[in-house]
User: Fold these one by one.
Assistant:
Number 1:
Amino acid sequence: MNPRSLADLNRRLGPTRRLARLAAWMGSLVLALMVLFALFPERIAPYDSTERVALPLQRPEADFLLGTNDLGQDLFSELIAGTRASLFTGLIVSFISVLIGASIGLLSGYLGGWVDSLLMRLTDLILVLPFLPLVILMSVYLGPSQRNVIIVLAIFFWAGPARLIRSRVLNLRTDTYIEAARALGAGPRHIIARHLWSGVRPLALVQVVLVASASILAESSLSFLGLGDPSGKSWGTMLYFARASGAFLSDAWKWWVLPTGLMITLTVLGLGLISYSLEQRIAHSVT
Amino acid sequence: MFRNFTLRALEFGLTFFLAISINFFLPRAVPGNPLQLIAGNAAPQLGKERVEALRAQYGLDKPLSEQYVIYLKQLARGDLGMSYRYSGGKTVVEVLGENFRWTMLLVGVSLTLALFIGSALGIWSATQRGNSSDLGMLSFIYLLRSIPPFWLAMLLIPIFAIQLGWLPPGDSFSIPRLHGWENIKDVARHAIMPVIVLTLAYLPTAFAVMRAAMFGIMESDYIRTARAKGLPNHWVVLKHGLSNALLPVLTAFMVDLGQLLGGVTVIEAVFNYRGIGSMMFEAVKSRDYPLLQGGFLLFTITILLLNILTELLYPFLDPRLRRAT
């Protein structure tokens, strides 16, 4: 490569790297804040979000920053308390899904043959089914609870990671170090656990972050439809009650609907930014 | 080509079979008996004989395999059972028929808009690769992808319908219904907000898929050749780049269709729009199981049909496939 095009390449990669670094910082900052809310809600929130502390449907004032809901609970405290359910659900779902997805992707990609065909047909089936209608159907049968939301989402979210990890394994398995290991007599279990897993680990990490953000969005949709834990505090449930009480049609949308959705958007965006910076880092280390 | 098509047809058939089997086994797999689901809260008050009569009426006293065969036979006749909610007695198929066109209107318009706008932005972004306008666009798409669509809908309604009064806050037409040209305008006005929300929800997928496909293609040899021939830039991008990107973009888009299409459910619920989504939302509240199963089945069939349609479109988009047949 001649010097001129190399300089050109540097100039063109410059902003991408800067953006990736900025994304990593902003994403981590947002996530750190949310983790803080999730771990110590009672230290940050001014009131117990399950207690009636004022008249219902109050406008914001000095004592109640975002006013009160239809039961007279402080909306700001509810907002802080809701972080735990949303973040917790998102992370649990993503760990389970990626664990299943990575196992299936590794097995499918390395073993090939009929195992591969069978597992990939299954993956395709999951991907083609209408996600939200089926999730609604399943949640209705299982009953509204946070645990059931986690189960239902995990059943769907493993398929994406499984596909990605399988295609990475297909690239890796013909690498010389894998062939060398095989030539030295290593069995499939050793090769998958030791060599292939370390090869797909960065990809799996990105998937954990991505699936977490998708789960938080999906969980909020389900809770909004009234399929989450009705007594638990989550952002989706808050929006459900904002709609059910008709409050979002009045001025209350400004302090009830707007901040709640902003919390969801911020959290999902924070995770999205982290996944973007991780992806960029992998792309640079590979090439 | 033919072998490939048979294989795909088999796959679609299998998916369909899985969907109807889910419909059958799901209510029977959950704890508690299906009768409780049918009778709802009234179940404990029913006498023993009444319970037996109900079980016989719904065929629940037969062995599972026999129930399954009966279910399949009913399905083959297009019988999805009765909806619980309408005491006058409406079949699920009737209710679905009334609602389906509204969902198709929303989804059809929004998917088309999102594909065109998203692809255009994706192509533009790919030609600017790595510079600030590409990255600005990318950041905007990341933000868009993080916004819960139903929340966006909940913000649009108080602003544009209540405070500004420009658009109707919900439903899919005015009551009493208008006629002729006025009716068309009325339906369009009711569809504006849901379509905006859905288009914005679909946009990131179309953008990301097109941008990635164009990245790969713009690096290839034939693009370099086209440039070397001195062809103008827009010609290279649109004729040589885009025509080769269309197929992978459509394929990738169809993979996500299951995710995308289902999203309409929540949006319709927020706007009280008379589609399958609102219908399912109402059915959740009244625990109308046959209706819920019917809605899920209809979504699955729609996705499968769209996939088959795309498959049939391939030869028109790619001359190489045309010659192979």
Number 2:
Amino acid sequence: MKSERIHRLQADLQQPLLVTGPRNLTYLTGFDSSNAAVLIEPDRVRLFADARYTEAGRAVPHVEFVETARNLLADLAKRLQGRIAVEAEHLTYAGFQTLAGDGLDLVPTRGVVEKLRAVKDDQELAAISRASAIADDALKSAVQEAWVGRTEVDLARRLKILVLELGGDDVAFDVIVGSGPNGARPHARPGDRIIEEGDLVVVDFGCLLNGYRSDCARTVEVGTLTPQLSEIVEICLRAFDVAISTIVPGMTGVEADKVGRQVIEDAGYGEHFGHALGHGIGLDVHEAPTVSKISTDSLVEGQVVTIEPGIYLPELGGVRIEDLCVVGADGLDSVTSLPARITVG
Amino acid sequence: MIGRCERIDFAELAAVALVGPANIAYFSGFRATPFERLILLVITPNGELRLVAPALEEEAAHAAVDDTVRCHIWRDEVGPLDALREALAGVQGPIGVEFNHLTLERAALVRAAATSSELRDCSAIVRTARLRKLPEELALLQRACAIFDDALTQVAKEVEPGRSEADIAARCADAVRQHGGETRGFEPIVLTGPRSALPHGRSGATKLAQGDLLIVDFGASFEGYFSDSTRTFVVGQEPDERQRELLDVVRRAEKAGIDAARPGVEAREVDHAARAVIEDAGFGEYFVHRTGHGLGLEVHEPPWLTATNEQILDRDMIVTIEPGIYIPGYGGVRIEDDVRIDDPPQVLTQVPVFV
């Protein structure tokens, strides 16, 4: 499994690849450390870490563990030779300078391991599904409680506690709660605003379980909505339904994004949908593939993506409906098991 | 945010371009959880603040900053380069960046957007700016410490044989949240019995046993500011003679460290003051880490209270004082409080040392 992942990388190497991104390291070796690196060569795989990690490092199968000095990159600068590809999105500028300090020829690369991570194996799909189920249950539970009179912060805290009580390791990212006008900010940080009748409350959160993350969003309708808010909910829902039922593997990110975006644009709200239709998820909350206006990524069976159209009206409110989906052979299969529309009294 | 930019010693830099979340929060007021989209703050020597932020954060950015900050918003389909160019307009000369934060890829982006391609490390000068806390920061730190106090008082009641380290750690986090704090950024460290001798251990499945030492180390963040404190318990009973001795030595070491934490003193003198007490008692070889670290928008920041750091401490810096004794195979004791450097020093965490 992990060795397969390493073999796939070895097959495509143009030069040895030094993996330093923490998630990428975990993905390839199961090793969890803030000060480690893996060098992938056609016929050799070495895991480098300092003495604090020797015991754990030696236990990693399929790799050769090498104990380094505490200053990992300075050590590697002397230890390695020739031309090496580095992960430009993870290596800091300081790290780069240290590593290049002794004459190593460093080639910046992007997204090599991330590309591999995009297609999930069965174990990963199961882990993500379990995480998603916990988040679903947390929201189902929260929806049974009173919402009017509650602050956004209180609701966010409650969701986190529910996720933990239901067996999650943590929330996947800081819980987003945007009530009333605050819903117009897609990444609203929960505040002291008190939820009231007539509010749309955008709730966006996920569960972290065994390293894998889920992500979903629902816009809870508190009582009766104004006609305008009702309208954007209905349009968003349509965009959501069309996207989930129409998107198929083989589409590029742009094509898939368009499927959902077109509905919102045709309804006259294109300017109010300012983010991508979706994103891949796994060890990271955001990973390949991206479902957006500029994404040349292709949707491939086995990927896990969110579909999350939204409409945001500053000072009035917003709506976002998001499911976690697996890209199946014929289309998207929702992992999220919540009703698309949720109303509380 | 008035006056904060004036604390930056630009020297020959034409501007700084910051991506570190704590630095961006400090200078602009904008606290965003960075995902992968670029959020960057340019500050010029004449005090101009230019915030590059993705469209997704536009409303939040505008809500957080005042009108001294000019926002340069970029949309996903266009990418950040143009916004970055605008933010760097007029900047002629070397640009300060945080070498330890800025990725190789982003360094290339900054170069592409700037007229000069020379990047220099500005981490030290920017961190220096954040050393002495402003009144509004002190108030938030005070609150973070009060949350710790309340949370620990609550957790202390739950220390009993049979509970696991992880369980107590979860209780610490719950208690912090219940009292209005946040827990992101650090894991409570709860270690018992011989495991309390591991200064960097992680809370695990080990169950608390009657008579064992128990180290409980956690903190709270409040509006971005961190407290960080530690208490050592004996589970279910009074300390025995050996435990009492260790607790007494560490407590005296802590007091000596706190007492030394005054303006004009070198950081290493604080470490020496605490360490001397432990050495004189014969346990010097078991005090295996520095005496403390700075606290603020990061849970670990300068000044570092190590045996060699000559940095001069100044009024209103905030530090932890956390001496400890760790005897492998037996157990450890650590007592930690948060202190404002002053004459006399002010201890911000108030929960009694022996709860």
Number 3:
Amino acid sequence: MDPRDPVTEEEKPAFVEPGSAWIAPGHSYASVTRQISAPVLGKTSKGWMIGFAIAIILFLMLNYGLTYLFAVGVGEFGINIPVAWAFAITSFVWWIGIGHAGTLISAFLLLMHQKWRTSVNRFAEAMTIFAVMCAGMFPFVHMGRPWLFYWLFPYPDTMGVWPQFRSPLVWDVFAVSTYFTVSLLFWYVGLIPDLATLRDKAKSKAPKWIYGFFSAGWRGSAKHWKNHEWASLLLAGIATPLVVSVHTVVSFDFTIAIVPGWHSTIFPPYFVAGAIYSGFAMVIMLAIPLRKWYHLEDFITIRHLNNCGKLLLATGMIVAYSYVMETFFAFYSADKFERYMMMNRMFGPYKIVYWILIACNIAIPMSFLWSYKVRTNTVSLFLVATVAQIGMWLERFIIIVESLHRDFLPSSWGMFYPTPTDWEILFGSLGLFFVLFYLFARFLPSISIFEMRHLVHTTAEEAGVIEAAAE
Amino acid sequence: MAKHPVYGVMAEFDNSKDLLDAAHGTRDAGYRDVDAFSPFPVEGLSEAVGYPHSRIPVIVFIGGLIGCCGGFFLQYYPNVMGYALDIGGKPFDSWPAFIPITFELTILCAAIACFFGLFIVNRMPMPYHPVFNVPRFSQASQDRFFLCIRSRDPRFNVEETARFLRDFNPTEVNIVPV
């Protein structure tokens, strides 16, 4: 670590396992290259087939739900007036939030010179891209006439009308499509050197050709690396404000309305914190099985999981603070409708959902994540992350549905009940995500190989060795 | 290339320090057309082979500037010039409401410029390159380090350059055919 860096929590001996580092000892360039590329170039494992089959089944359920929805119309969702937004928008916000941790790890931690990002950034970025794909699907299918989605984009049409550029819903279109494009480009730029490694390591013709095509003739020359480093740094620099802007704009979709429970200035930071919270929960949920199944414990160490657990704790506390403030604002505003909304949230028809949300998002994670033992035990950390993930979905459900179902006039009150289509598309979106993630883990290196080689180099340098010896 | 049937001479090293020393030594000896290859970015290597500045930052800045101006104009034009609607006397040029999209398009254009800029300055995609004719060059993307002096260099002479490179303690020296 740079001597100018302040001493971090991890550096204090009491918090570090004996001999633990960001990479297990005894690794060389060749060994990290071999270990990370082995699952990609090797044979398909039976476990992968089973997992992929389950994901495919969920994905088929999504297709079934969507086909039915497109044939019949959005009335198939449980939505109504006043609850015109429900599961689809909840899941949209949830998925896009999950994506944020990937960008945070790959971009923000790069700017902060955090070495522990090296072994988690690749699959976290993949998670971002797939989560944004799932997220983007929801507003699309929630449109009454999805085949006219291109009306959202500004183009000189024969009708002579333009999108309402002052509307956060239009900002959202730009924010999410920019986010997807930038994440994809950033991911691909990072992949190019690793694709070249796979090209050079592959034995058979087809992988050689395909990896060769996508590595675009990467030679690893000093000029290539110079430009590559600049490109990565600048993409990280522009992705960092972008990720904050995306969830801010998503929260504007709500705050711009006068609906009690939505119309609040706390929303942008509250949403961004919640997004990172659920995102880190997802990173943990993916990292733990991935390191176990692909034997990547040397690279994604317990120390990495501990750090993710700490970030989960930190962002969870911001979320908890936001809940307290939201409740306080409702009281302090002295607004009849705001106060009623908050009482209704806690004691109204959706009170069970609200209290499960409080348990999942605050009570359980906040009581367990303080423990070093819980953070460093893969089973307990996985369970806590799962609970937080469910909690974050429920949070968005409460914000959207609970705020809408009591309109200003009691004559306009209503209730929302999910339909089978709602459930099919929600769980089906998990299928879409996992199909993509399984394909990623099979055909692309889950950890950035060249950055791990660089980590081996810097670790050896710090230890006073010129270079890690050959394997 | 008929004049030079040889692309260059390439030395292989098993660690980055030897490569860096060799790169400095080659420059000091007066060679100018030199390139180095490594499996990860080695600090100071591009300076050592005479490539101190990347053009990527300028490209990204220009891309961002185009995105920023274009993004604002995209909203300014229909709201003020092309399709101005008087809604309750509200101003046409309500620029604060145009900032989010201006910001997003700045980022988008900067990122796209960065991506294509990287490909252009690195001359990618490049389906064929002579360095791959060295069989062991496939290790350059794994665990080995290479230094290549190209035949275009005025000081280049196959035998002499190969002998020169052997002084840097390489594991192997190869002649790179075109």
Number 4:
Amino acid sequence: MNLAAAVMSGFAVAFLAPVVHRAARAYSGWLLALFPAGLTLYLAGLAPAVWRGEALIAAHEWAPSMGLSLSFRLDGLSLLFSLMITGTGAVVLAYAGGYLAGHPRLGRFYTSLVFFMASMLGLVLADNLILLFIFWELTSISSYLLIGFDSEREKARQSALQALLVTGGGGLALLAGVVLMAQAGGSFEISGLAGAAALIQSHALYLPIASLILIGAFTKSAQVPFHFWLPAAMEAPAPVSAYLHAATMVKAGVYLLARLSPVLGGTDFWYVTVTTAGAATMLSGAVMAYHKSDLKQLLAYSTVSVLGILTFLAGLGTGYAAAAMAVLLVAHCLYKGALFLTAGTVDHETGTRDIERLGGLRRAMPLTAAAAALAAVSMAGLPPLFGFVSKEMLYEAGLRAPLHAAALTAVLVVTAMLLFAVAGAAGFRPFYGGSPSTPRHPHEGPPSLWLGPLLLAGGGLLLGLAPALMENAVRYAVLAAAPGQPVPLKLSLFHGLNTALLLSAASVLGGLVLYGARARLIRFGPARALGRWGPARGYEAALAGLNRFAAAQTRVLQSGHLRYYLLTVVGTAVALTGFALIRGGALPRQPVFGDVRWHEVSLVVVILASILTAVRTESRLTAVVALGVVGVGIAALFALFGAPDLAMTQVAVETLTVILLVLVLYHLPDFSKFTPRVGRQRDAIVAIAAGSLMTGLVLAAAAAPHSTGVAAYYLENSYPLAQGRNVVNVILTDFRALDTLGEITVAAVAGIGVFALLRLRPPGDKP
Amino acid sequence: MRSIILSTTAKLLGPLLLACSVLVLLRGHDAPGGGFVGGLLAAAGLTLRAISEGVPAARRAVRIEPHLLLGAGLAAALSSGLPALFAGQPFLTGRWLRVTAPLAGEIKLSTVLLFDVGVYMVVLGTVLLMVFTFSEE
């Protein structure tokens, strides 16, 4: 098995999941969890090789002419991410089996979830930039399906669409940025760009490249002002919130920043933009989380805040920052995954998520309470959990920031205080104190609902007690994200008495104060106004504007009258082609005419006379016949100038057109001149303009030097390559057969269209 | 309205046009002609019949519903591209088979001919679908 097979097998399992569910029923979650667990073992088995400094590569061709290849690469950074994805995936699948037990669409849920996992795994393993983009958008799509899983509720559908538009829109910016970057750096492979950093950063388009890629990363990782989709995404079932919107998908932006910072980072623009966005996000996220009383909302905003910290660390670009980022990624995945799952369990067992209405649940749900407590301690950054190690390293990285170290560290400390209070509200408050009545009588859920959270939270404890377990994983992630920087190791719980420890103590004290004063502080908090006037308003306005624009342009362009459609189409063609013709200077000064013979002249006279007749006649039948004469005249011209195929076809087409027109005419009312004079003059102008344009085109074509390229190729190769002597037919059926296939499809659709318009009308609707 | 002149002419011309159309289709690869013109000629022959004898008579003459003809044509054109795919060549690359028949001598059978037959059927089907629908209104 190689990396490509590992990723692709996920998509296969995704579509098998409903079958597994139908067969295994109550055990389907456990059974499906075996797949990500197996992938985790496979990836862990590759770890020693990665930690020897090798990068594992699996590349297959896909569309080489577009720079697209199925190339996957496993290094320290992608190993860290993929282990989080598959490990949490196993926990979440098992949990989902219990959480949604008996749900009629559980099979479909598994499909979306495993589909997401495969896409996310592809995203962090892809070495080709286009491939990365494809997986990036696939995660957005699966996130859309999962947020909107409860599709009967309008709120769920709206939130799903919002998340899709924001992250999908960002994805398009990312695509543009990636294509520009590949052009500047000369490769679509990320590994191929490693040596091109100087080339790209001195490129004239560096600013647009970096900005577009940052928009992609910031929308995905919910950075201010794009953060609003993430709290709204809490409409999704709890396993989705834990998996996509805390542990993995929202970290794709951070992954991208870390992955590309060796190529794009190191400039002032990068440093300032990324750290500012990160700092703004961590602070505002923490403030908003502090003000929430809905368990999931509170956790969602705290996730926004942590994503801000991660972005900030990715922007710093130092070895310390990269190490702190790697540790925080793992710590956050463990504690936030656990907290979202326990929040789901609480919601599942009590029927409410409002922390003002919850309390004392530890008696009814001791195992869930234990998991929540462990996770909350880790989130608060207290020893001996992994969150503490993470916070120490975070302060260390802040203190060693290349610019504005003091101010940035202050922001980090304030954020940590707020997150401490939030951790208390999420992990302790529902489980301790008095027990108010809840909609449902609480009791401990089945193993699937407490084992997963307990495993994740326990992981935080294990890594906190033995942080050395993570040393290799962190070291090689740092080597990939910040190559050439000193790697600060060892990882340990106690670093000695230093500034970071003091700051840690200060933030714990501040956090305790904030936790105690929470009820009083949020009453006059600014968060309410922030919710009402935040950037979500801009999103709504933009959406409404788009709808209005669509309605307006439909009113203008879709008049429902054939004559106006014709006018628009012909007018546009004349204007654009005419402009290009004149500007390109293709019109010859002196048109070249060959020898004109008398029978040619007489044919032209007949054609002109018929045109005049068609325009001036009062009778439809005469007009149709006159047009037929024009067509046959042109067919005769074709024949005279040596194009028998064209002539034959033209005659046949003319004949049938006349018949069809006569059949249609039969149904029309008597002819009368409805169009006023002005309208007729306008039509005349458009018609003459169109005719002049065609004349100009023909003259330009005749004046151009005879192209020897394509025409000569067809003439020479028609028989040797395609075994046909009629070049026209060979072109139609062989050289350009795909075009012909398209044309006959259009013809077929037109025929069916006529049939559908006339035959499939609702009863009673006669023209 | 029935015209004796028209129906007599149609009886002679209709089959002639149909025969012509097949000839034009088959010789198209080496001489003027091909599926497109062939289809139009056949359509003209059958339209003549529809005008002189009425649509029901023309429908009986075709035997197949025009929209089925149209679909079958598309399917034929599409499937003519597949053999090349199986041989590892780009979609729609022509492939030939030369057969020596007892009387006719050497015959070139090819995916290109199948493609052209598809074009013929689509064109014939589309025109007939339009003509029949319009005249039955």
